[in-house]
Amino acid sequence: CSSGYTGERCQDECPIGTFGIQCAEICQCMNGGKCYHISGECLCEPGYTGVHCETRLCAEIVYGLKCDKRCPCHLPNTHSCHPMSGECFCKPGWSGLSCNESCSPGFYGESCQQICSCQNGADCDSVTGKCICAPGFKGSDCSMPCPVGTYGINCSSVCNCKN
To answer: PANTHER family, per this entry (predicted)?
Structure first.
């Protein structure tokens, strides 16, 4: 097949994310840039430039055609602000239009879309999803009760009972 095509009769364009002869090359476009199936050249989304669409046209805290609008995002919780629309892309553990809302209990991660797997009333780290076990339980998902003779947070206290 010619560069950029595949299929029994070479009738299909390379799958999205690949290009070149036998579609063997991986596209390097960033920030939503579209990859040309023959050469791998990137067509950048508005607001981005560069060979791989890696460069914002506006500084991180502003957006718009003239880069004259301030991003509405709560910056400490924000990964980026779209250079044209001003849409906020939140860091893991944060959500909301301005990235000012922490994840609801039971959720974590990117856009708070991941479901925590913690058991027995354990809390879940809103960024990593790591379980914070309630006293009396241990294990990665807090499913194991403390062994006989131990108690407390992470089962780290030893019982001193007699009889």
So the answer is: DELTA-RELATED (PTHR24052), PLATELET ENDOTHELIAL AGGREGATION RECEPTOR 1 (PTHR24052:SF12)
Q: Using an 8 Å Cβ cutoff, are 16 and 43 in contact? A: no
Q: CA-to-CA distance for 95 and 73, rounded, in angstroms? A: 11
Query: Is 26 or 161 the better-scoring residue by pLDDT?
Result: 26
Concatenate the DSSP letters of all residues of 4-64 into one string: TEESTTS-EEPPTTEESGGG-EEP---TTPEEPTTT--EEPPTTEESTTS-EESS-TTEES
Q: Which CATH superfamily is domain 5-56 in?
A: Tie2 ligand-binding domain superfamily (2.170.300.10)
- End-to-end alpha carbon distance in the chain: 82
Q: Which architecture, in CATH terms, is 103-158? A: Beta Complex (2.170)
Q: pLDDT over 90 for what percent of the chain?
A: 87
Domains in the chain: boundaries: 5-56, 62-95, 103-158
> Quick one: average pLDDT of 43-51?
94
| Overall pTM > 0.85 | no
pLDDT of residue 60: 86
According to DSSP, the residues that pair with 78 across neighbouring strands are 90
What's the pLDDT score for residue 160? 84
Determine how many CB atoms are found less than 10 A away from the CB of residue 51: 13
